[in-house]
Amino acid sequence: MFIIFKLHFAFQRAREHYTQTRGKIVNYLTKNWIIKGNSFIRYLCSNQSDQRINKQDFLNNIKSNQQVIFFVFRDLHFIDWFLPIHKALDTQYPEKFAVIYVNFGSTLKKVGDSLEYLPYLNQIELRLVPLKDTQFGHFSDKEIELFNNFPQPDLILTTETIRQEKFKVKNRVYLPHYTVPKAGDTLPGKIKFNHVFLPTQEEFSYTSLNTPDGRKPELHKTGYPKMVSLGNPSSRLFSDEKPIIIFAPSLDIKLIQSFMKKGILAVFKALTEFNFVIKLHPTLSTKMHYLYSYLCRELDKEKHVLIDTKSNIQQIGHHSRLMIADFGSVGAEYKLSFGKRLIYLDLPKSYEGGADLKFRDIFADSITTIENLGDSIRDIVNLGDLSLMELEDMRNRVVVNWKNADFRAAEAVNNILA
After folding, report:
1. CA 398 to each of CA 78, 177, 363, 395: distance values in angstroms, whole numbers, following the listed order
2. φ and ψ at 60, to 5 degrees?
3. Which of 228-232, 340-344, 393-397 has the lowest mean pLDDT?
4. Measuring CA to CA, which residue among 13, 102, 82 is closest to residue 225?
5. In angstroms, rounded to a whole number, what is the distance separating the alpha carbons of residues 70 and 173?
6. Which of 173, 176, 264, 341 could tie 157 with a disulfide, CB 3.0–4.6 Å?
């Protein structure tokens, strides 16, 4: 049986390789016949005259007394971590700061300087809609040279390593994109920063607050701004009123394969009294697309099971009843945000030792094997959500400034630049 399972994956990998090869051919023809070897992103910017004028106006309207903040990113979903801080800056310090978003999507293998940039750009613009005119303050690193008066930053925030980012700036802030770190997680050594915005209390933080190369950044206990701003819930994903359960596995592909080998999809198929959302990390629908294709094929006829790779937890969490997780921060973020129930799947001992599983051991509603998952789901759904007192006690123990982390982060930015 497992041999057939592995053959399925091999077949899906081959299909994905074919799709990627076909895409490369289309991009090659586009680049050489239509845009004559130029940068696709620059070509796109040059031919969107209205958008380019609006962007230039945005730059021209930055006042000489304003301090300039860059948020730099590659993976577009990291915008969700910074938007609450941007909103708080505009509210608390109106007209004091000019915020510019710079994407390095061209450095991503799944995007590059190709036609794949279009859906990537569209998703960025959708995320920036809540802030007025912010879409005109967003630039690709490839198009900066097309504009006049592009400023130097006074401060840069980022959540990830971007080797190609070469801006000269004194103040750099690392904004963690998770609530609780895993075993072995440290402050990143490859990201350039001299400030850190810490989201959690010491009990649920890094074991060391120095970088691997010995640097001691300035620490700011801001909290987790993304949790404060839960955003607009998505429209209901199902037409019926059955309880919705989210399965949000980590990026560990071998672990996911082991869950499927043990029959987790069969559990979901059998529990037709519930609706399931398999919330895959965006990477699992790109670099590892064969997994996504395999799941789509296996679950094609299951109307009560959906696969989601684009929504964030803040959107789909509103309508759900509970989450199933394995390790990492997604389970903690879900329960801390919504006060809903949380089931963890049993893991090998090699995953132990991080704040993520310390959170599990204290706050999980169930830790179960795949064999007992169906019974656990039925039992935990019947518990209902946490009481307000339970939720506040948990937040106070785990998170820093959970009520106003966005404004605390804005204050930290202001203090750094003061």
Report:
1. 22, 16, 10, 5
2. -65, -25
3. 228-232
4. 82
5. 10
6. 173
> How far apart (Å, rounded) are the C-alpha atoms in residues 363 and 394?
8
What six digits make up the tokens of 13? Answer: 């990998």
Q: At 61, which amino acid appears?
A: N
Task: Decide the pairing of beta strands 171-174 and 155-158.
Answer: parallel
- Rounded Cα distance, 324 and 244, in Å: 11
pLDDT digits (tens, 9 = 90+) for 72-91: 999 988 998 999 999 999 99
Report pLDDT for 1.
46
Query: How many Cα atoms occupy the beta-carbon half-sphere of 8 within 13 Å?
Result: 16
Q: What token pair was written down for 132?
A: 């007025």
Rg of the chain in Å (alpha carbons)? 22
Report the amino acid identity of residue 312.
N
Grouping H, G, I as helix, E, B as strand and the rest as coil, residue 308 is: strand
> Are 212 and 206 in contact, with CB atoms under 8 Å apart?
no
Both tokens assigned to 119: 């859906």
Q: How far apart are CA 359 and CA 204, in angstroms?
A: 7
Cα angle 374, 307, 319; round to 5: 70
